[in-house]
């Protein structure tokens, strides 16, 4: 299942005035979670629940801990109990929907997200997460409407344009996808997901100058990620700018030394520049990563 923006930003629930004896453990749990110590936080929320099982905020926050620890099944149980006790917990329904999507319980996910949207119908995230689940069910028309509803309700929620673009690409509607990505970028100029997607559309259409621009912007938005630099290198190489392409590939392998495609691209640029000694060194590196690409590069090096 594709693309989830797990909504920890939805926040920790704070119980207000509904308990006194357990406030200290609850507060400590919030502190531990905020500090990124999720297992310790889970233990504290479990302690609260052991003493006061009918506190929905404790179940909600325990679910947040399990989700952060990658324990999706446990998180689902906690979120389900939270909304069973308090059906007005928007965050609980949202997170329950996300966990069920991750678990492949897609019909149940849609049902949970529908409950969330009854509480906050203007939630762009809720409509997008619902669209993701509907896509998994192959109900693409409904998914499209869900993404469009997200855009109508919350036009600055750029993930709606991104996911609508991805869906249109799956439907081979390249023009529609391009339009969605362009709108996402217009609203958030450094939105790397849309920059990479639009760059790929240009690249596949052999519009290498336009692709280069998108990948350059994506590289700035993702300073620690190799992928946009790899595709920037590809675009520059096809634009017959081997020196600039080699620079992009070098940045890529500096970030991820196991990217065989970046090493291969670098090697090809070095050959075109007649830097054969360095090209041979790159080929030797490729020998340990991808023998097929290494063999191709060795064939390009004279002598």
Short characterization:
This protein has helices at residues 23-34, 38-51, 56-68, 72-85, 90-102, 106-119, 124-136, 140-153, 158-170, 174-187, 192-204, 208-221, 227-238, 242-255, 260-272, 276-287, 291-300. The protein is an all-alpha fold and 303 residues long.
Percent of sequence in beta strands: under 5%
Distance between the termini: 48 Å
Outline: elongated
**Poorly predicted ranges (pLDDT <50, ≥5 residues)?**
1-11, 14-19
Radius of gyration: 24 Å
DSSP helix count? 17
What does the main sheet amount to? none
| DSSP, total strands | 0
User: Which structural class matches the secondary elements?
Assistant: mainly alpha
Question: Averaging pLDDT over every residue, what do you get?
Answer: 94
Give an account of the 3D structure:
Helix 4 packs antiparallel against helix 5, helix 7 packs antiparallel against helix 8 and helix 15 runs parallel beside helix 17. It is elongated and about 80 Å long. By secondary structure, it is mainly α.
Could you list some keywords that capture this structure?
303 residues; 17 helices; elongated
Note the topology.
Elements lengths: L22 H12 L3 H14 L4 H13 L3 H14 L4 H13 L3 H14 L4 H13 L3 H14 L4 H13 L3 H14 L4 H13 L3 H14 L5 H12 L3 H14 L4 H13 L3 H12 L3 H10 L3
Helix pairs in contact: 1-2, 2-3, 3-4, 3-5, 4-5, 5-6, 5-7, 6-7, 7-8, 7-9, 8-9, 9-10, 10-11, 11-12, 12-13, 13-14, 13-15, 14-15, 15-16, 15-17, 16-17
